[in-house]
Structures are given as structure tokens and as C-alpha cells.
């Protein structure tokens, strides 16, 4: 019955139960536990202006977009951070776009989780996340990726024929495919790849 570690009072406020002494809480408990699966991360973090529950489509999505990532983080650093957060084995795709002119990341990343439930937990955990392990004041802004970039298969097809997979691109700058928390080889392209130009990475897609 704990809402992101904020305790029973936060839960009562979030789901609209009467204040102390929480009359009728026992008969609500089973329904509340189900509702928590659908409660939006914003509400879990105390934003009373946010919609209470996720949309139906949100219950099946698995790919999220992380924004406001510190520019000093590279792919391995971000992956280690995600693993330390408890998502090792629940990630099967990670892409941190790089600006090839500067060598820094572009401030956002795409992450696919192995289940919709894991993706919702991921969103809740990294909502306004700030413990990046580097000196920064940035807070993570996290949202669902667009519909055409939802799911592992969609991301593999999106990037296997992308210039970012060209042989000239360092491996650590490419999208990463994982199985059980370990990197595996990305499927080969199905057509000729062209090297990225100098502007590649500024928009990141």
C-alpha cells in the first residue's frame, strides 16, 4: 500500500479516500492494489494535477524516452546506472544518440523493457530522477516513445539499416541489444549503409 515510499497517507490522498481514520480502507484494499498498477507516475510522485490513471495504450507500451540526460554520460555509464536501479535483465534495447561533432550525447535515450509492467516501473522510478552519478542539476523527464518506435522489433527494424550502424561509427555509439542483461550482436542490415554526415546526432533519430 505504499506509493513510491510516501506511505499510507499519500495513498489515501491519491485515491481519494476520506482522511483519518481512513474509514472503509479494508474494503478498498483489494481494489486499490489493482488501481496502483494503472496509477500514473506523476500521481505517484504527488502531482495532484496529473491524470490519475494511465491510458489503456500505456498498459501495453514497453519503449520509453529519457530526456535531460547529462551530456557527460556515455552508453556504458547509462547502462550501469539502469542496472544499479534494478532493471538488469529487464532491458533488451538501449540507444543513447551521440552528436558526432562534439562526442557528447544528445540529452536523450530510448530504452525498451521486456514487459509493459517493467516499463511502467521504469517510468515511475526515473520520473524526475537526479542521481546520475555525475555533477549536475538535471532532472530526468521520461515519457513513452512514439507509436512507431514501440517494442523491440520496431526498434531493431528502425536502426538496423540506419547510418548509426555503419562500420565507421564506434560500437559504443550504436544502439545496444541485450539478452538477460548481456549485450548481443545486432541483426545485420538488409540494405547498404551510408556513413553518417557531420550533422548526424544533432536531432538524434
Description:
With 205 residues, the chain is of the alpha+beta class. The protein contains six helices and six strands, in the order αααβαββαβαββ. A hairpin with a 2-residue loop joins strand 5 and strand 6. The termini are far apart. The relative contact order is 0.15. The N terminus and C terminus are likely disordered.
Q: Evaluate the radius of gyration.
A: 19 Å
Strand order of the largest sheet: 4-1-3-2-5-6
Largest sheet: 6 strands, antiparallel
How much beta, percentage-wise? 5-15%
Share of helical residues: 25-40%
Q: What is the count of β-strands?
A: 6
In summary, what is this structure?
By secondary structure, this protein is of the alpha+beta class.
Task: Provide key terms for this protein.
6 helices; 13% strand; 6-stranded antiparallel β-sheet; disordered C terminus; alpha+beta; 205 residues
Amino acid at each position: 500500500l505504499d506509493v513510491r515510499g510516501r506511505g499510507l497517507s499519500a495513498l489515501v490522498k491519491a485515491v481519494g479516500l476520506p482522511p483519518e481514520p481512513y474509514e472503509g480502507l479494508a474494503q478498498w484494499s483489494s481494489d486499490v492494489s489493482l488501481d496502483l498498477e494503472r496509477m500514473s507516475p506523476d500521481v505517484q510522485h504527488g502531482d495532484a494535477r496529473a491524470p490519475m490513471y494511465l491510458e489503456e495504450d500505456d498498459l501495453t507500451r514497453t519503449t520509453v524516452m529519457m530526456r535531460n540526460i547529462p551530456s557527460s554520460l556515455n552508453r556504458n555509464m547509462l547502462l550501469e546506472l539502469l542496472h544499479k536501479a534494478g532493471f538488469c535483465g529487464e532491458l533488451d534495447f538501449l540507444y543513447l544518440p551521440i552528436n558526432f561533432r562534439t562526442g557528447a550525447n544528445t540529452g536523450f535515450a530510448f530504452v525498451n523493457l521486456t514487459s509493459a509492467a517493467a516499463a511502467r516501473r521504469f517510468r515511475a522510478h526515473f520520473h524526475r530522477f537526479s542521481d546520475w552519478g555525475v555533477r549536475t542539476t538535471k532532472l530526468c523527464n521520461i515519457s513513452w516513445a512514439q507509436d512507431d518506435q514501440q517494442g523491440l522489433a520496431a526498434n531493431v527494424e528502425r536502426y538496423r539499416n540506419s547510418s548509426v550502424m555503419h562500420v565507421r561509427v564506434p560500437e559504443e555509439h550504436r544502439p545496444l541489444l541485450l539478452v538477460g542483461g548481456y549485450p548481443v550482436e545486432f541483426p545485420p542490415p538488409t540494405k547498404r549503409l551510408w556513413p553518417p554526415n557531420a550533422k548526424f546526432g544533432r536531432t538524434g533519430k
